[in-house]
């Protein structure tokens, strides 16, 4: 940069430094950027003028505006190049909850996240935003408009959630504003949307096999389902507000569509949109719950002889038959969060994107 005529050298150095700081502030890395949430995150960040790195075990898409770094989350040697020169890290890498691989859950969610924190500090990263889960406070009983003040579940719904609790505690505990390191955790609930590899494909597969005929309970239990674009919006707001308000650091925030919907109504809307019959026969909640409980006891008894991973568990029944929806008031007040996409529009966009799964008469 040439020095302007008459400009003192100190002013030139200061201007150069400020320009560098501004440029760095728009540089970020999405860990897990090849996944469902990660890809949507990358797209919205690019649209908002960010320079984006992706770190993942695989390259899930091609984009000339993105730098890809492939490697093991638990290796600082692999991770460091992706974080060097970056101000913000979005950590949304996680194994699929349906994998039932306890060792993998612990390694990635806990040990891998500790490595992310250490590498962020070593690379001079200022902000770390974690994708957590509202399920970290859910124990299988009704939660209505739950706030972030609820305690962590002492009996998590599964081992995956148990490691997400460890992960969130580790990230929030690493907050150190005095050393310019800010952390926060975003807690979405039941993310859905275009390219979702879990919820819609699993629902359609069950419908094709004739397993979507029954409603557990009276069907009135309200649940949060959160459109992926709203989840991304919450993450980016958190990153942008962390640098302005250190009081946000070390805190968790619920991010939902802010439109709780009956669990079975949501599933029915997706199924009907894809030309499948919605469930219509009711089964009493407590009957189904105790059947699942008996089955889990039986599995425990025979586990020394036979290893079985039942999908019909008391916690799965609780997820389908209880109220669990959460307040976004904290995110609204402190970050100005408002959902960008309404539930009606979100369902329409999602159904349209899965046209290839539509039932042909």
Automatic annotation (TrEMBL):
Q: Which InterPro entries match?
A: 3Beta_OHSteriod_DH/Estase, Lipid_A_modif_metabolic_enz, NAD(P)-bd_dom_sf
Q: Which GO terms describe its cellular component?
A: endoplasmic reticulum membrane; lipid droplet
- Give every 3-beta hydroxysteroid dehydrogenase/isomerase domain span: 30-283
For this UniProt entry, what is the primary localization, expressed as one broad class?
A: endoplasmic reticulum
Broad class of enzyme this protein falls into:
oxidoreductase
* Matching Pfam families: 3Beta_HSD
Q: How does it sit in the membrane?
A: Single-pass membrane protein
Membrane-spanning intervals of the chain: 283-306
Q: EC number(s) for this protein? A: 1.1.1.170
- Molecular function per GO: 3-beta-hydroxysteroid dehydrogenase [NAD(P)+]/C4-decarboxylase activity
Q: Which UniProt keywords apply?
A: Acetylation, Cholesterol biosynthesis, Cholesterol metabolism, Endoplasmic reticulum, Lipid biosynthesis, Lipid droplet, Lipid metabolism, Membrane, NAD, Oxidoreductase, Steroid biosynthesis, Steroid metabolism, Sterol biosynthesis, Sterol metabolism, Transmembrane, Transmembrane helix
GO BP field: cholesterol biosynthetic process
Write down the chemical reaction(s) this protein catalyses: 4alpha-carboxyzymosterol + NADP(+) = zymosterone + CO2 + NADPH; a 3beta-hydroxysteroid-4alpha-carboxylate + NAD(+) = a 3-oxosteroid + CO2 + NADH; 4alpha-carboxyzymosterol + NAD(+) = zymosterone + CO2 + NADH; 4beta-methylzymosterol-4alpha-carboxylate + NADP(+) = 3-dehydro-4-methylzymosterol + CO2 + NADPH
Q: Where in the cell is it found?
A: Endoplasmic reticulum membrane; Lipid droplet
Which pathway does this polypeptide act in? Steroid biosynthesis; zymosterol biosynthesis; zymosterol from lanosterol: step 4/6
Gene3D superfamilies for the chain: NAD(P)-binding Rossmann-like Domain
Kindly indicate whether the keyword Transmembrane belongs to this entry: yes
Instruction: Report the domain of life of the source organism.
Output: Eukaryota
Q: How does this polypeptide assemble, per the annotation?
A: Homodimer.
Give the family from UniProt: Belongs to the 3-beta-HSD family.
Task: Write down what this protein is called.
Answer: Sterol-4-alpha-carboxylate 3-dehydrogenase, decarboxylating
Q: Which organism is it from?
A: Heterocephalus glaber (Naked mole rat)
């Amino acid at each position: 940069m040439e020095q302007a005529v008459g400009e003192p050298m100190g002013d030139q150095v200061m201007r150069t430094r400020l320009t560098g700081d501004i440029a760095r502030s728009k540089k970020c890395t999405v860990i897990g950027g090849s996944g469902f949430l990660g890809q949507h995150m990358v797209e919205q960040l690019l649209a908002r003028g960010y320079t984006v790195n992706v770190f993942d075990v695989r390259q899930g898409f091609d984009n000339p505006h993105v730098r890809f770094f492939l490697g093991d989350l638990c290796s600082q040697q692999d991770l460091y190049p992706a974080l060097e020169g970056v101000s913000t890290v979005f950590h949304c890498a996680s194994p699929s909850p349906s994998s039932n691989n306890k060792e993998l859950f612990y390694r990635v969610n806990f040990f891998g996240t500790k490595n992310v924190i250490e590498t962020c500090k070593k690379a001079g990263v200022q902000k770390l935003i974690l994708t957590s889960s509202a399920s970290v406070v859910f124990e299988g009983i009704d939660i209505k408009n739950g706030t972030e003040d609820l305690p962590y579940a002492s009996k998590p719904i599964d081992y995956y959630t148990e490691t997400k609790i460890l992960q969130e505690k580790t990230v929030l505990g690493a907050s150190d504003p005095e050393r310019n390191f800010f952390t926060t955790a975003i807690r979405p609930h039941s993310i859905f949307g275009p390219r979702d590899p879990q919820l819609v494909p699993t629902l359609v597969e069950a419908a094709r096999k004739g397993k979507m005929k029954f409603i557990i309970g009276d069907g009135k239990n309200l649940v949060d389902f959160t459109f992926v674009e709203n989840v991304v919006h919450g993450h980016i707001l958190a990153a942008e507000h962390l640098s302005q308000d250190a009081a946000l650091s070390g805190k968790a925030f619920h991010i939902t569509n802010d439109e709780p919907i009956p669990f079975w109504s949501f599933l029915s809307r997706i199924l009907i949109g894809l030309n499948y019959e919605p469930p219509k026969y009711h089964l009493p909640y407590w009957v189904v719950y105790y059947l699942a409980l008996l089955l889990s006891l039986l599995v425990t008894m025979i586990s020394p002889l036979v290893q079985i991973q039942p999908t019909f568990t008391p916690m799965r029944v609780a997820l389908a038959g209880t109220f669990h929806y959460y307040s976004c008031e904290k995110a609204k007040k402190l970050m100005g969060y408002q959902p960008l996409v309404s539930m009606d529009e979100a369902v329409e966009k999602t159904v349209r994107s899965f046209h290839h799964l539509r039932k042909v008469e």
